[in-house]
Amino acid sequence: MTAAGTNSSCPRCGAAFRCGMVGGDAECWCVTLPHIMPVPSNIPSPTGMPEASCFCPACLQQITDDRKNSSPARN
Asked: Number of folded domains in the chain?
């Protein structure tokens, strides 16, 4: 059974979290982060919970930061 309000699990760390897109919310928490990558699809869940093909807030923030910091300089 999932914790109240959770409807997804992170494919990176397995954490349960609430995805606004799956939950039918008007907006998801992830829209506050820079849009630097497409949402992945078909990622197996380590916990077997329903997937939104998204990462939890902590992992998505880390991925976003890593990608922003490692963007190659263009010549």
From this structure: 1
The answer to the question of residue 23 being in a domain is yes
pLDDT per residue of the chain (75 residues) written in tens, 0 to 9: 345 588 888 888 999 999 888 888 888 888 888 877 665 555 555 555 444 468 899 999 998 888 888 766 554
Handedness of CA 57, 61, 38, 12 (dihedral sign): negative
Which residue range is the domain that position 19 belongs to? 8-69
Cα 20 to its chain centre, rounded Å, is: 11
DSSP of 40-69: P-SPPPSS-----S---HHHHHHHHHHHHH
Does 65 map to a domain? yes
